[in-house]
Amino acid sequence: MAAPTSLLLLLLLLLAPPDSSAAPVAGLIPELKFFEKSISAIEEVAGYYLEEKKEEGVKDVSGEQSSADDRQLGNSAADSYGALIFDLPVGTSPPQVLPFVMDITTDLVWAQCGKPGPTYAPTFRPNRSDSFSPIGCADPACSRLMPKYKCAGPSDRCGGTSAFLATDTFTFGTTPAKGMVFGCIGKVPERNLNSTFGSAGFSRGPLSLVSQLQISRFSYFIDDGGGDKSFVSFSVADDAAPAKDKGSRSTPLLKGKYPDLYYVKLTGVQVDGELLKGIPEETFSGSSGVILSTTLPVTYLEQAAYKVLRQKLLTQILQQKVVGVPKSPDEDRLCFPTKEFAAVKVPTVALVFDGADAAMELNVKNYFFNVAGSGQTCLTIRPSTGGSVLGSLLQTGRNMTYDIHDEGGVLTFGPAMPAGGQAAAATKGGAPAPAQASLVTIATLLLLGRVLIF
């Protein structure tokens, strides 16, 4: 299955019913079922966002905007566990401020268009923007951007009537970017994340912000302490590289089976500083590597490696005689009663990537997560077949920087910060340092911990 650059395929993914089952993923990004997992895992963010906006008495989708001087675009509250959500002005006369989810696994930038529905869902009104322009089916841009789309007639819009490609002005800080291509999508089912937020694609695909703005480097920090230190930033052209965090490590970004996605090579897993034995050599020998995601909280590890990791953790935890053997026979999960687990000395875990000393030491609270309302603390690493994905939970609390070039690029990840700690690249207000964001600085507010689906 080809990487999803088609608007029609995107719609299929968005309209698919959420998959709440916990079976191993049998076909990873960009396979359909995998996207269903991603949507299901964070769709509750939508409901909380709407409730909080109503409580604040906000009458429209713009919310409270920061001044242009500090180059911040609003504060979008998100009860998330890794989703980066920010406000972005779209259109002119005047701009309409809409919330977008940063997604590094998709190339399309899209927003829900049309008249607002019965819920408080942010909706873009094309007829109120003087700079809005649908892309026609006969436009060369349509065939270039959607080569497999078949036009019913030359006067049709590129993509159909209920979902189509268009151009408009997007404003980053005080800088307008004219002629940005994005998807304008009609009604999306309520209570789905995508009925509340648009998507800001940061993949390598031709429609992404990375490609349209010629971004050479982007960074993000997901605060794991319920604070306001989270940010997304990017640089264009040949801007000077920002200073690295002390203790930062780098690994090559690979060009995998799906060239629009970001891959890194995992070479092993450590528990308490020791490399796990018993993982078949071919487990990590694939050329594609591990896919990186900012919208899927849970990490998926190839089943052969997952089984060894799960058994090692289970053995070392049970040896302490603090908790009993998990009652569930499901070997695809590892959960313990939260009250008993609080006394456990949890073994440390690190993912070892290709490169000189490129081990990512994980925060315990991110790989053993207290699932609110369940009384359970569960391992946030799950088994998969067909590939592995590094989810957003394991990325929280550290700077993640992507330097992109045609041959692949480099991923640089900082050391894990203490809960609520300050990212080295951020200022006190949560925005990245000026040297790191030549065009835009986006601050977000993340509140971790209400809902997580395993």
UniProtKB/TrEMBL annotation:
- List cellular component terms (GO): extracellular region
Q: Where is the signal peptide?
A: 1-22
One GO term under biological process is: proteolysis
Its keywords, alphabetically, are: Hydrolase, Protease, Signal
The record lists the membrane-crossing segments as none
Q: Which domain of life is it from?
A: Eukaryota
Matching entries from PROSITE patterns are given as: PEPTIDASE_A1 (PS51767)
InterPro entries in alphabetical order: PEPTIDASE_A1, Peptidase_aspartic_dom_sf, Plant_Aspart_Prot_A1, TAXi_C, TAXi_N
The UniProt entry's sequence similarity note says: Belongs to the peptidase A1 family.
**Which PANTHER family does the UniProt record give?**
OS07G0603500 PROTEIN-RELATED, XYLANASE INHIBITOR C-TERMINAL DOMAIN-CONTAINING PROTEIN
Q: What is the protein name given in its UniProt record?
A: Peptidase A1 domain-containing protein
Write down the species: Triticum aestivum
